[in-house]
Every structure is written in C-alpha cells, then in structure tokens.
Amino acid sequence: MTLKFGVIGMSEGNGHPYSWSAIFNGYDADAMRDCPFPAIPEYLSRRRFPEEAIADAQVSEVWAEDRSQAEHIARASRIPRVADDFRDMIGRVDGLLLARDDAENHARFAAPFLEAGIPVYIDKPLALSVADAKALYACEKYPGQIFTCSALRYARELGLDEAAKRELGEIRFVQGTTAKDWDRYAVHVIEPVLCFLGRPGAIAESRALRIGEATVAGIRWESGVAATFSALGKAAAPIAIRVIGTQGWRDMVFRDSFSAFKAALEAFVRAVKERKAQIPREFVLNVIAAIEAGRKAH
Q1: How far is it, in rounded angstroms, from Cα 254 to Cα 107?
Q2: pTM above 0.90, yes or no
Q3: DSSP code of 89?
Q4: Which domains can be identified in the chain, with CATH numbers?
C-alpha cells in the first residue's frame, strides 16, 4: 500500500515543502525552475526520477497560508490536491509533513493531527525550549507519533564511524558552524554532534553570547566533552564540524542535501508503518536543551 502524506508549508526561508514533496513525487522541471530556492532544482536535476524517489509513499495534498504559493508547490512537486484548510487533510492522509521551521507555530499546526492519531514529521527544531518540546510530546496518542530531527543527522559526511573514532582517540572538543540564525539553524550542527558523541550526559556548563549578528554557545556535558556552536547570520558559512580528539582532528562539511533529506523521510515512513519511535525522545530533548542554552544570548 502506498502511504498518503499531506504537507503544510511555508515558513520564511524554508523550501522543504518543495524538496520533501519532490523526493516522494518527482517534480515538474519547468515549474520547479521558478522555485524561490535555486539550490533545490539544482540538486534535484542531478538525480534520476522516478528511480531515486521514495517509492512506497506520496505527497497527496498541500496547504499553505498563501494559496498561490501552495498551488505552485503542487505544480512543481506534482501534488494532486491543494487543501482549502490544513485541517481538511485529517482523514485523508496517513501522515503529515509539517514542513515549517518556525517552532513557535508547530503546536498550532500539529495539534489537530496528533489529536486525530495521525503521525507527524515536525521540521527542525521541534521547539525552542525543553518545556515546549515536552508539551508537544504530551499530545502524542502513542509513542513515536511525533517524528522530528535535523535531516543532517543522516548526512554521511557529518558522521563518524568506529574507525574514525579510533583514529581521533578520545573526543575532547567539537566546533560546529552554520550560517543564518540560531533558532532555526544551530540544530543542524548540534544534532549530528550529539549523534556521534553518543550519551554525553546532561549539560554541565554553558555560556552564550551575541557578537554582531552571530550567536555563539559554549557547552560542556557531564562526560567532559565540550563544544562551541556558532550561527553566523548572513555570513556565507558552510555547515561544518571540526572534531578534536586526543590523537587527531577531523573537519567535516555538509554537501549532499538530497541524500540527507531522503534518509530522514525514509525514517518517517518507517515510523508510520511500524508505529514506533525512530529517534528517542531523550535524544531530541538533549538537542533542544543545547538550542535553549544558546538562546540565553538573545
């Protein structure tokens, strides 16, 4: 059976309604050329469709506050229906892609679907405080109904396998850097770091400051591992991580959006089919705790 997903968009600067939907449905090259995010048609053009699409699910309808925007997403990503109201999708879809990264609006859009028992992929970050994240989880009708992450947790270029960890020795310090604003983009370096650190424990110490348009947070976990995470505003910075161990260091730069997004969406498909959490709630709350620590600079 092919799963049917609804998608809700858009928030400022976030092209995920286009890209996520295209990874399921394929895309119309002429319409996608007018997508307001040029990187999306560029990386989609390097892929083969339908061969590289996710085969066992499709985006069947879309809603956005701007109807004309929703209609363009539908044309570009071959979505057959534009919903008149986002709540109308309840009863018609097997899952929801909440493809907006304005965390302050997540509860508003997700709550009706959670109440109806529909699994929801909530775009990063789930929330901007641990308390708000816990409030969203409290809406779940079953464990794992909420799927949320930075897709960069699945980016191969930002991961460390066991051989790399042996070469580095004991990891002592990590530096993560991203462009744009802290609230929406710090998660892209925090989450991959916590993935390869494993269980560093709770935050033992943190400092945060604003330097011009940049936000920088220093964090030390109970394990003793420390990190700095920087969101550099309008600077043309890559999403990059430097890992420093007792025997060496390694630089990693994010490059492959399609593969990371596809892997995250495939994990959501598994969550829908298995009705089981793919990412532990405790892990997500640790990510949110680091985001919240950085927000103390605001």
Answers
A1: 30
A2: yes
A3: G
A4: 3-152+258-279 (3.40.50.720), 153-255+291-295 (3.30.360.10)
